[in-house]
Write a structure and sequence with these properties.
The chain is an all-alpha fold and about 70 residues long. It has five helices and no strands. It has a domain at about 25-70.
Amino acid sequence: MTKLEYLKKQHNLSSAKLSLAAGINYTLLTSIERGERKAYPKVKKRLAKFFNVPEDELFNEDGSLKEIED
């Protein structure tokens, strides 16, 4: 499970709701969630700000999502 999945679950958010609330394109967000794309700095910043966490808590240095233990 990624840290983003964990936070979405904690806040009862779907990818669609998160994309609207954070101002991120839904298709881009789901591609990042599936590991097909890396997050751009702007996307990392928006998601971290939305969840009020540091960017490095959500993302690896290369823009991929960080995994956490279940």
